[in-house]
Design goal:
The protein is mainly α. It has 2 domains: about 5-190 and about 300-330, HUPs (Rossmann fold, 3-Layer(aba) Sandwich), CATH 3.40.50.620; about 205-295, Orthogonal Bundle (Tyrosyl-Transfer RNA Synthetase), CATH 1.10.240. Helix content is about 55%, strand content about 5%. Strands 1-2-3 form a 3-stranded parallel β-sheet. α1 (about 20-30) links the parallel β1 (about 5-10) and β2 (about 35-40). The structure holds adenosine-5'-tetraphosphate. Adenosine-5'-tetraphosphate binds near residues 13, 150, 190 and 199.
């Protein structure tokens, strides 16, 4: 049976947190059952923002080990490091030649970051979506799981594929397969513990703003205890005046596996003190087996490296063929 292909990556920019897990890794684990998954540690994307060269390799391995600990099965899916598959950078170069700078400058994420960085905003920040298009098109992906924030970039990927096909494809023979977005449910956007209007993020300077997947039970309890709340009694979803209540309830729903209705009913009369104790325990219980598997995996570095090597070989087989197809269509002379 031909399984549909999905592609997804995560940047090794710091400690993987509950947001990355609930928003991305968990769906990747679920999708690998029915789809052929190409999951990668997006180290080439990690260098878009300023980064610590001493930490990049370590975060790359930690993130890979966490992918496995969360349930990515190397027998079903390919797990690899983006920079190990040279075709990602090479195809990005080719795609750049059909991508108008005007379109890249219109990307919301670029505009937001460029405003902050001013004259220092890099070419890497501008052409981040071109590399992302390369990540996706190399694997002839059918579906790309994206959150709201990545929807615009996926639209651009589709646009780049269409432009390339128009210029270099021939009748009835497209060079690139056009992917569809697989929109993740809204509840999967986890917000900061210290500000319910900001997303939980690796790069937030305050560690207390996030639950890292490897935080100890005591640290989790302390962070949840200190999480921002409001002074209204009883908890409820969807009240725009109460983003923190909505966020904490959503996290509780996702880690407890209960339905939204059951959680709303269970917590509607609780105070934050009682609820936070319940939430902290639910997170601790949910993360315990992941942390246990993580410890086993990092102790067996030979295993981890062999999974990444095998993943690279599987990824390369597909990516190199696509790159070859693209180069041929553009008229490059064959490698001698
Ligand atoms: N708070 C979040 N809630 C739900 N999903 C999230 N993701 C990230 N934060 C949340 C999803 O995790 C995947 C990998 O993200 P990434 O590491 O490639 O980049 P990011 O979105 O920039 O994640 P961070 O944690 O905020 O990293 P920094 O601080 O380095 O920018 C993506 O699918 C993303 O949607």
């Amino acid at each position: 049976m031909n399984r549909k292909r999905i592609v997804s990556g995560i940047r090794p920019t710091g400690s993987v947190h509950l947001g990355n897990y609930l928003g991305a890794i968990r769906s990747a684990v679920a999708l690998q059952e029915e789809h052929q998954g190409f999951f990668f540690i997006a180290d080439l994307h990690a260098i878009t923002d300023s980064q610590d060269p001493r930490a990049l390799a370590e975060h790359t391995l930690t993130t890979a080990a966490l992918y496995l600990a969360c349930g990515i099965d190397p027998q079903r899916a390919s797990l690899f490091v983006q920079s190990h598959v040279a075709a990602h950078s090479q195809l990005a170069r080719l795609l750049g030649s059909v991508t108008p700078v005007g379109l890249l400058k219109r990307m919301i994420q670029f505009k937001e970051k460029a405003v902050k960085q001013g004259q220092e905003a890099s070419l890497g920040l501008l052409d981040y979506p071109v590399l992302m298009a390369s990540d996706i098109l190399l694997y002839d992906a059918d579906l790309v799981p994206v959150g709201e924030d990545q929807k615009q970039h996926l639209e651009l990927t589709r646009d780049i594929a269409a432009r390339f096909n128009r210029i270099y494809g021939s009748a009835g023979k497209e060079v690139f397969h056009t992917p569809e977005p697989l929109l993740m449910p809204e509840g999967a956007r986890v917000m900061s513990l210290t500000d319910g209007s900001k997303k939980m993020s690796k790069s937030d300077l305050a560690d207390s703003s996030r639950i890292n997947l490897l935080d100890s039970p005591d640290v989790i309890r302390a962070k949840v205890k200190r999480a921002k709340t409001d002074s209204i009694s009883g908890l409820e979803f969807d009240n725009p005046q109460r983003p923190e209540a909505h966020n904490l309830l959503s996290i509780y729903q996702l880690v407890s596996g209960k339905t939204r209705e059951a959680v709303a009913e269970e917590c509607k009369e609780m105070g934050f003190g009682q609820f936070k104790a319940l939430l902290a325990e639910a997170i601790v219980v949910h993360l315990a087996p992941i942390q246990e598997r993580y410890r086993q995996i990092v102790e067996d570095k030979t295993y981890l490296l062999s999974v990444l090597r095998q993943g690279r070989l599987e990824a390369e087989a597909v990516a190199d063929a696509t790159l070859c197809r693209a180069k041929e269509s553009m008229g490059f002379s064959p490698v001698l």
